[in-house]
Design brief:
Layout lengths: L2 E8 L12 E7 L2 E8 L5 E3 L2 E5 L3 H4 L6 E8 L5 E8 L9 E8 L2 E9 L1 E3 L2 E8 L1
Parallel strand pairs: 1-11
Antiparallel strand pairs: 1-7, 2-3, 2-8, 4-5, 5-6, 6-7, 8-9, 10-11
Length: 131
């Protein structure tokens, strides 16, 4: 099984509420769409100081949210939201060495960045930094 892992930070307004938001992730490479997945309001739950969505069934079957296995977000002391996303990699074949990752919250594009793929033992990783 192969996965794609993403880590990035965002400076979002204080009003951002992961539990009440629709969060859309889109990935393309070389202008070709590879992935689109959405978390609906209510999918993400607060767990202590973090918010989380976990779908163990996504590892085998794609799960209930487009292959999103794990979504975790927390806010650091500087007010920056730190995102971690793990998706079941359903895209195959030769890929452009660059990937573009976009995230929209409630229909508003809040993250759009391009970077290189990084191979991991069980998939691909992306440390995309702060937008």
């Amino acid at each position: 099984m192969s996965f794609a892992y993403f880590r990035f930070g965002l400076d979002l307004p204080d009003s951002f509420d992961p539990t009440a938001s629709e969060i859309l992730f889109e990935i393309d490479t070389g202008g070709t769409p590879l992935y689109s997945g959405v978390l609906l309001p209510g999918d993400v739950r607060k767990r202590g100081h973090k918010w989380m969505f976990r779908d163990p069934k996504a590892k085998q079957s794609g799960g209930i949210r487009d292959g999103i296995t794990l979504f975790q977000v927390g806010r650091n002391n500087d007010g920056i939201w730190k995102f971690h996303l793990k998706i079941r990699r359903g895209f195959v074949g030769d890929l452009d060495p660059r990937v573009r990752v976009m995230m929209s919250v409630d229909g508003v594009l809040v993250y759009d960045r391009e970077d290189d793929w990084r191979k991991r033992s069980n998939g691909l990783g992306f440390d995309l930094g702060r937008n």
